Amino acid sequence: MNLKLVKPDSELESQYNDYISEWEKSEENIVPYASRRGGQDFKTLLNNWQIGSTEKAYEKGFVPATLYFLVDENKKIYGALHIRHELNKYLLSCGGHMVME
Fold first, then answer.
1. What DSSP assignment string belongs to 42-84?
2. pTM score > 0.90 for this model?
3. Contact between residue 3 and residue 78 where contact means Cβ atoms under 8 Å apart
4. Strand order in the sheet with 4-6
5. In whole angstroms, what is the distance from residue 70 CA to residue 80 CA?
6. Burial class (CB in 10 A: 0-12, 13-18, 19+), 1
7. Distance between CA atoms of 87 and 97, rounded to whole angstroms?
8. Whole-angstrom distance between the N-terminal and C-terminal Cα of the chain?
9. Mind listing the pLDDT tens digit for each residue in 21-78?
10. What is the pLDDT of residue 101?
């Protein structure tokens, strides 16, 4: 099996719906939080994920971050990764992050 990280795009809509429905049925916390549906349609999610990766994220009190999905050669989604481009003061003390030295 070949796995790779990809940014979400319109071709992943069906696979995303399968992936996120499985999370929702489990009633577990969706991780990363940014990958949750939140009552939005896929087109809106794509737009929000794209905006969230730019400096416009600051306007909503966030830092820019990019969402990736882990997919196989058939584009089945196995997981997600939300990478913050930087940390702010709050995120340095809490809110999942890794510090590499």
1. HHHHHHHHHHHTSGGGGGGT---EEEEEEE-TT--EEEEEEEE
2. no
3. yes
4. 4-6, 65-71, 77-84
5. 6
6. exposed
7. 8
8. 32
9. 999 999 999 999 999 999 999 999 999 999 999 999 999 888 999 999 999 999 999 9
10. 52
Cross-strand pairs, 97:
none
Q: Report residue 12's pLDDT band, with 50, 70 and 90 as the boundaries.
A: very high
d(CA 13, CA 73): 16
Which residues does 83 contact at the CB level (< 8 Å), separation at least 6? Answer: 65, 66, 68
Cα angle at 72 between 41 and 30, to 5 degrees? Answer: 45
Instruction: Write down the pLDDT at residue 93.
Output: 78
Element (H, E) at 85: none
Beta strands 4-6 and 65-71, pairing class: antiparallel
Dmax (CA) for the chain in angstroms is: 40
